[in-house]
Structure prediction request, 444 residues.
Amino acid sequence: MDTYLIYGLGRSGIAAANLLSKNDENVLLYDDNKTRLAEIYNSGLVPKTCEILNKLCAKTLCVVHCIVLSPGVKVSPKLAGLIKKLNIRVLGELNLAAYFCPAPIYAVTGTNGKTTTCTLLYDMLRSAKLGSHLIGNIGIPFTSVVDSISPSDSVVCEVSSFQLENPAGLNFRASAVLNLAPDHLDRYAGFSEYVDTKRNILDCTHGKVYLNYDDPLVRDFGKDRTDCEYFSLSPLPEGIAGLYYQNGVIYRGEQPLLSLKKCKLLGKHNLYNILCATSLALYAGADVANIERALNRAKLPRHRLEFVGRINGARYYNDSKATNIASTTVALECFEKNSVILLLGGSDKGEDFFGFLNNLPKNVYKVIAFGRVGKKIYKIAKKCGINVVYAPRLDEAFIFSKDVARSGDVVLLSPACASFDEFSNFEERGDFFKSLVEQYETKN
Prediction:
């Protein structure tokens, strides 16, 4: 019996603790938030056979064989040195589950579009009756379902940069990289470190890697490699294998594969998501007819450009999943013909708001900056000559938008920031926003 330390008791940490306990391993629990740790332990979400650690030091760590880090946990340099000195193996929750997984894993990473792409791929494989499971950074911890997966199944895995920081033990049948834009710069030394972290997915893949040819940084991942194919919104150059989109049809070379004329997903960004998912689905063994059937019934995931309702003729959209500037930029492209009130803010991820706000589309006639980073956004927006107001909290930002929105306007929550100033995650933020809209929609 080995001793595992679960560091971080979010959803994935809880799932990892349960998986290891079921497999008769000795499990220790630690979280920087001692109150949350005690609440989780006392609630019965983890087995009582687990033991709580109140601090991490040489004395407590000397019995540990492996540390399982939850996504987002950043180990301090001092603790990292101690772990190295004691020769303790470190795994992520994803790595741990991959060790137990008997089925092939198809992984998707990138800055934006991962959830939509993985959902599409999952639906394509289910349509083809390939026993698909949807896990990873999409919100379902891999360790919570790995025991129910059989060797004949297929696993679709959304992979974040956090999960690729330590790629040890990850083994993907095929993978894809959608795009790269600045994100999580509060965590990494710079954009190049973030890009290099994403690049780790290549070394974890033992079949095909699918890359966005139209993104120069992503395309460069395939340099000097023979295991890569590409996808593009233009015909690919001669000698470059992959899929491309043209006039409502997906092609491989000169051969038309399937039509998108009945697909309801709109926008250039979704075409990339579709091409990426289709590439992986074909590799996994799905036939074209079932891929097309899945695309024809596809819908956007929750919290991504999700129409919530109308208040006094203004339309409200929940795009809480837009936690970086690149994602918000994509969202705004979908409303080029509308007057937009943009709700922007949350917790800071270190991005360049000056460049974004200085080039804000003219149809955004008002910005409501909110949350912990709201004052910073407000000051930058003022310098850029933007019509902006500041609200400390999201509910106050919503009330202000309701009071100034005109009939025909779009009120868009697309924060370009993380949610951790007021909320546990972007889903909670989006649900809160939706509850506000629904409350006032009922009264009007």
User: Anything to note?
Assistant: The CA atoms of residues 59 and 92 lie 23 Å apart.
